[in-house]
Amino acid sequence: MKNLTMLFLLISLSACHSTAKKSSAERAATFPKKGKKVIKAEHYTLKNTSDGKIFNQCDLNCIWQYYYPFLDSTYVVAIQNCPEEYFGVTDNAILYFGRNKAENDQVFLKDSLFIKIKSEFVEYKDFNGDDIKDIMIFSETGGRGGNAFYYLYLIDPKSKRIIRIKDFETIVNPEYNKKHNVIIGYGLSGTNNYSIYKISKNNSVYPIGESFEDDFDSVDEELDKRITQILKEN
Fold this sequence. Notes:
Elements: H1 2-25, E1 63-67, E2 75-81, E3 93-99, E4 106-113, E5 122-125, E6 134-142, E7 147-156, E8 161-164, E9 175-177, E10 182-187, E11 193-199, E12 205-207, E13 212-213, H2 220-233
Antiparallel strand pairs: 1-2, 2-3, 3-4, 5-6, 6-7, 7-8, 9-10, 10-11, 11-12, 11-13
């Protein structure tokens, strides 16, 4: 029985190694093509990470997804999405951004997140007007499912960075308005309301003016007038 257990462990480690090599060979060359690899948990076990390696680990506890924001595919965004009780805190996922090295990975950014769903939670949209698609990560919904909340990471290909925008996850149903260079939030409740935001120099969002009721059925021309007036007054 002991020999059989050892044989099973050796087969599992070999499978993990093969999966990691295959993922490395199949990386996406351009953004926003995801080139993601998903490792699904069949059952819980102890964490399986080494001191030097973060990416392409065989982790039976969580689902790992990989995204490649730059043409240089050694740069990787890895999201470790776990059961809600796994970390024992309010957040259930970790985002890593770094470089995938042969033996010792470089990690430039590590963030704790809360992600309600287990797959298809990443979108690519420009949120700062540079025509580069940024990373928007779905967190959860409120208001009976009508209000969605996201995390936002801006992509900076020149300096090979991704930048988290602080407090973006407090904006309801966020959309970017390129004409006015603002972010529009739209909250669904007893009365639906618009809120207007900008991104500050220290990479956080802040409101512009007061929220206002959608008493004009979301007509684009009227919304444009309201935003123009708010920007003039603020």
